[in-house]
Amino acid sequence: MTKISPILLSGFCLFFIASCAEPYSPTVKAPELTVVNSTGETIDRIVERSCDANDDSNDRILARELKTGRSLVIPLAVTCSNLEAFNKEGRVVGRQAEVSTPPDLYWQIY
Predict the structure, then answer these.
(1) Within 13 Å of residue 106, how many CA atoms lie on the same side as its CB?
(2) Vertex 23, ends 11 and 10: CA angle to 5°?
(3) Which helix (H) or strand (E) holds 66?
(4) What is the chain's alpha carbon radius of gyration, rounded to the nearest angstrom?
């Protein structure tokens, strides 16, 4: 009977295990904004504007009609943004300036 050297056997086992492994590609969680309305009135809309924008022509409405005491989770698309929350009369009731998106952001509006 032929003797197999321990080094050759170890190499074969390592090759077998490595061939069964799947490539690993880490996934990065998309940044999310959690907004809580604690104002006592309905927030009509929440608007996002890129930090690079000079005017409101490219504003993106993130949410509409957020009732008092409610919260919602919104995916963020840009890495730096200015956020504003407006009531039904069009008055700004909350503002976040130059928000750099970490994986998650929590904004409670009073």
Answers:
(1) 1
(2) 10
(3) strand 60-66
(4) 26
For 80: left if phi > 0, alpha if psi spans -120 to 50, otherwise beta; the answer is beta
Going by C-beta distance under 8 Å and a sequence separation of 6 or more, which residues neighbour residue 70?
36, 37
Q: Say how far apart CA 89 and CA 107 lie, in whole Å.
A: 21
Report long-range pairs for 17-20 (Cβ below 8 Å, ≥24 apart): none
The structure tokens listed for 97 are: 């300036």
pTM for the whole structure: 0.70
Under the banding of pLDDT at 50, 70 and 90, the label for residue 3 is low
Residue 99 pairs in a beta bridge with 81
Fill in the amino acid letter for 74.
I
- Quote the CA–CA distance of 94 and 83 in Å, as a whole number: 8
